[in-house]
Amino acid sequence: MRKLEERILEDGIVLPGDVLKVGAFLNQQVDTGLLADMAEEVFALFSGCGVTKILTIESSGLPFATAVAMRFGVPMTFAKKHASANMTDDVLSAEVFSYTHGKTFRIVVGSEYIRKNDCVLIADDFLANGNALKGLISIVESAGAKVAGAAVQIEKCYQGGGDAVRKTGIRVESLAAIASMDGGRIRFRD
Amino acid sequence: MRKLEERILEDGIVLPGDVLKVGAFLNQQVDTGLLADMAEEVFALFSGCGVTKILTIESSGLPFATAVAMRFGVPMTFAKKHASANMTDDVLSAEVFSYTHGKTFRIVVGSEYIRKNDCVLIADDFLANGNALKGLISIVESAGAKVAGAAVQIEKCYQGGGDAVRKTGIRVESLAAIASMDGGRIRFRD
Question: In 10 A of CB B41, how many CB atoms?
Answer without folding.
Answer: 18
